[in-house]
Design brief:
With about 325 residues, the protein is an alpha/beta fold. It has a domain of about 140 residues: 2,3-Dihydroxybiphenyl 1,2-Dioxygenase, domain 1. Helix content is about 20%, strand content about 35%. α3 packs antiparallel against α4. It starts with 17 loop residues before the first helix and ends with a helix. About 50% of the residues are buried.
Length: about 325
Amino acid sequence: MQLPGFDGKQCWGARRRGELLMRHAQRWLTGGLSMMCLGVAAIVPAVAGPFEVPAITAPATTEHHVGKVIWLDLETTDLARAKKFYSGLFGWDFRDYHADGTDYAVAMSGSRPVAGILPRRIHKGEERASAWLPFIAVRDVDSAVSTALQHHAQIESDPANFPLRGRQALLTDPEGVRFGILASSSGDPPDTAATPGTWSWTALVARDSGDEAVFYQQVFGYALLGMPMNSGFERIRLSSDGQARISVSAMPPDAASLHPYWIDFVRVANATDTVTRALELGGRVILNVQRNAQGDQTAVLADPTGARFGITQLPGPQVAATLPSRALSDAALRP
């Protein structure tokens, strides 16, 4: 695959993370296909020099699902350590790239690219420097950005085009949670059941779940379904095309000082075994395995650099899984 050079003239402004986001957009989701050696993390040799991001789907389709999370990036304080952890945990292998003094790794589950990993600078005062960043599908990035700004979002990177990928931008929502929007030029992945080693669900833990749900509804046109729990907390499920896409859960009042955040879930074959393996690899258990009303077994973990993520063991062929509202709220209390 030819890897043409990228345009290094993108400027994200003088914001706090501007320089990082410029490099992020230049190198976001790069690489080609490689095969995974089951149970062993195979690292594909690094490709030096300029590179271009590949398409979301190949071959291209006309399928689009506005509101669906179609890509995730991990911004980490230790790229090598993160790669070793996720390789050992999910069997991901990586294709590595290096350009303009910056490294980027594309995680592969079999022949399917599932995530990008890139270095992140530690800013003074940040409690947790490493974090996963979801990208949500839209048809018109500029229109979505305009709508988000009208509803009190802030932009971190202006819309930018990538020849094979499409058009994307980075924003923060009214509570300061970062998210990406992406209009894929090759169509969106189909709504099929997640397979082990791929993403199955995305949840937002917010200070005000109602206001945050309404914000995302305004930007992505979601239908909202509130699900109050006996504990007094609420989980709001956001859907499009008849499919649940993300959920928003409220933090407990005594966690109001913490920053809201995403938890993205990977499907696994055995949740208990995955938790054990995560600990062996230097990870941390935030919330141990629990079974929800749908029969899903879920847990919330942190990688060795502190990035939170979830795992889900599904009982059957389901597209999405969620953690009970009380569990998500409890997770907000953990350091």
